[in-house]
UniProtKB/TrEMBL annotation:
Coiled coil: none annotated. This is UPF0033 domain-containing protein. InterPro entries: TusA-like, TusA-like_sf. Residues 7-31 form the UPF0033 domain.
Length: 75
C-alpha cells in the first residue's frame, strides 16, 4: 500500500506511538496516508481507537516478525 510518509515507532511504549502519530498526522493534508511501524502490542487497539475518534481511517494493519504496521488515511 502506498503511503505519503512512514513513521518508525518501533521500541516505543504507550502512549508514545500515539503521540508521534498525532504529530505526523497534523503535518499531512487530508487524504494523505501515514504508514506506522510499531512493536507495542497495544498499538493496534490504541491506533484504531485514536483514528476513529479523530475522524481518520485505518485502511489496513498487519503484523510481520513482531512489527505491527498500520496505514492511516487523514480525514
Amino acid at each position: 500500500m502506498e503511503s505519503t510518509k512512514v513513521l518508525d515507532a518501533k521500541g516505543l511504549a504507550c502512549p508514545m506511538p500515539i503521540v508521534k502519530t498525532k504529530k505526523e498526522m497534523d503535518a499531512l493534508s487530508s487524504g494523505e496516508v501515514l504508514e506506522i511501524h510499531a512493536t507495542d502490542k497495544g498499538a493496534k487497539n490504541d491506533l484504531a481507537a485514536w483514528a476513529q475518534s479523530g475522524g481518520h481511517e485505518l485502511l489496513k494493519d498487519e503484523e510481520e516478525n513482531g512489527v505491527y504496521k498500520f496505514w492511516l488515511k487523514k480525514g
